[in-house]
Design brief:
elongated
Length: about 140
């Protein structure tokens, strides 16, 4: 019986295929495969739910790009703003970090004539602008 050392050609090719597949997954070179994950309607819904928690946040003011809220539980002011394509919730000094929504290109906040109702216009990467009215009255109802 002969003692074999090394790999067969088939084993070497299989190893290369597996390695290249892992490399593609790690680098995400094909943006079309990643694209559906970026625009998850569930993520959009969850971001709205976080801001509209009953008894949590109450609308203070807006500068257009920054939304100022009163955190009723912590008794402090918090900001919702865009930083490096991530809509995030921070304290008034920009510290702390709670990501609300990723791949956001632009956001605009507008107070409405109705107390605590705020219009949010948001644009995510590769999508048209979306508008939503947020109920930021902070009531436990």
């Amino acid at each position: 019986a002969m003692n074999r050392h090394g790999f067969t050609l088939i084993e070497a090719v299989l190893a290369l295929v597996v390695a290249s597949g892992l490399f593609l997954l790690a680098t995400g070179t094909d943006r079309r495969l990643v694209r559906p994950l970026q625009h998850d309607p569930v993520a959009w819904y969850q971001a709205v739910r976080v801001l509209e928690q009953p008894g949590k946040y109450q609308f203070c003011s807006t500068t257009g790009t920054i939304l100022k809220l009163w955190d009723q539980q912590r008794q402090t002011t918090v900001h919702v703003s865009l930083h490096r394509q991530i809509l995030k919730l921070t304290n008034s000094r920009g510290q702390g970090y709670y990501p609300l929504l990723k791949h956001v290109v632009a956001v605009k906040w507008q107070a409405t004539p109705y107390s605590g109702l705020v219009k949010m216009t948001i644009q995510q990467e590769g999508l048209p602008s979306q508008h939503v009215l947020l109920d930021l009255r902070g009531k436990d109802s």
